[in-house]
Amino acid sequence: MTPDTLWLAIYNELTETLPTHAINTWFEPISPVALSEKELVLEVPNQFFYEWIESHYKKNLNNALLKTADGEMDFKFIISAKKNDLEKNSETFKNYSKQNRHNKPPLNKNYTFEKFIEGSNNQFAKTAAESVAADPGNSSFNPLIIYGGVGLGKTHLIHSIANRILLENSRALVVLVTSEKFTLDFVNSLRKNKTVEFAKQYRKADVLLIDDIQFFRGKEQTQEQFFHTFNELHQSGKQVVLTADRYPAEMQGLQDRLLSRFQSGLSVDIQPPDFEMRVAILLEKAEQNRVDLSYDIIEFIATHIKSNVRDLEGTIIRILACSSLMNREIDYKLVRDVVKERAGKTITADLTVEDVVRRVSEISNVPEREIVGRSRKMEIAEARQISMYLCRNIIGTSLNNIGVYFGGRDHTTVMHAVKTIDNKKAKNERIGKMVHTLKQELSLTIT
Predict the structure, then answer these.
(1) Taking a C-beta distance cutoff of 8 angstroms, is the pair 152, 309 a contact?
(2) Confidence class of residue 414 from pLDDT cuts 50, 70 and 90?
(3) How far apart are alpha carbons 214 and 192 in whole angstroms?
(4) 241 sits in which H/E element
(5) How far is residue 422's CA from residue 327's CA, in Å, rounded to a whole number?
(6) Assign residue 47 a region: left if phi > 0, alpha if psi is -120 to 50, beta otherwise?
(7) Does residue 153 come out as left (phi exceeding 0), alpha (psi in the -120 to 50 range) or beta?
(8) Going edge to edge, which strands form the sheet with 239-244?
């Protein structure tokens, strides 16, 4: 028996007891290297991989080996000598950081423009950020202020700017800090009587990036220091990039002269992702995390998790964890449980009439414009009535509002549609199954 044939037999045995996701994530990348009388040598990509298998799947491996090997045998793991792309990127990052020993910003090397998913909600912000990174300090976008809600990608963009600048010019002095870090450094300089050193540390930067400037509100001395730092850098042609949770002029508690300086540059916003953008993000995050999700499940998550990119990514990670740790196949029920846990009671309130019509359109193959139109063709009228029924019974939309959305129909027409589907779902198996499926997908409170 060769290492390959023994490992294939073990692999096939594992597929009988472990979920597909666990197999794809943790066993596909393993390579058999050697086989002796008492030991099968397996190569794994890295140390983390080995430790995860040892802690989570050692028993499964031993059981599979017992069933497939002749006589007593054990495993030996070796770490691959090959560097994957992530490790290569990490080494590149370390190399250009080492070239400038004074420049050690806490950059996230995974936050790059290439990994930033672009859509209509953030396209302008990304373009402005790339422009600044290409020629820092020499454009009219100074300062550049990126603002928007939590988890929409502001931090990703400023780290992308810093990473791109350092990749192009490793000698550039880039300072990237949070507003809390800036404040803490200032407080410590006061405590140790080193305010001059504090000022020099920040004012010698070629590029200064500060995340979440809204936390400067109410900190008068910190704002004073930042004002002078900003002035010196700006007058010297150095680039300043800031992020905030809202348009700077709307922030209470910041000095007027600071707000005036901010208005001299460019402020760009990032909006919450729309449905199509959420689907794209989920597909990308699922691929990155090696989670095999059907498109229907992706759309289901995108329908209910709407607030920001961080929540979407967190949902994928949670699904991955539940599948691996609880030894469950990733199916609709698992995903539904995870989404319900993360969305809580907000799920029904977050649904809109548009969401309902979109899903009915997909499952019935009737275009959305036809569902809300005037056609009386049987299949179109049926899709329209089902949509009205779901709007009324799941999200509680008023009869009048439903009528207005569906082409200005009278509320009595909506009542008739709701009653018709209520009767048909009990008598017509096809309609009953369709309504049940849509209820399950659109309302996590229905069991």
Answers:
(1) yes
(2) very high
(3) 26
(4) strand 239-244
(5) 39
(6) alpha
(7) left
(8) 174-178, 207-211, 239-244, 144-148, 266-270
Can you tell me whether residue 267 is helix, strand or coil? strand
Residue type, 123: Q
Residues 6+ apart with CB under 8 A from 341: 318
The tokens describing 39, both together, are 């030991």
CA–centroid distance for 116 within its chain:
10
Q: How many residues does the chain have?
A: 447
Tokens of 169: 């010019």
Nearest one of 157, 183, 152 to 144, comparing CA atoms: 157
For range 102-126, the mean pLDDT: 79
Cβ contact 339:311 at 8 Å: no
pTM of the model: 0.57
Torsion, Cα 394 395 396 397, to 10 degrees, reads: -130
Strand-pair category, 39-44 with 31-35: antiparallel
Residue 70, amino acid: D
Contacts of 275 (CB under 8 A, 6+ apart): 302, 303, 355, 358
Q: pLDDT per residue over 308-341, tens digit each?
A: 888 888 888 888 888 877 777 787 778 878 887 7
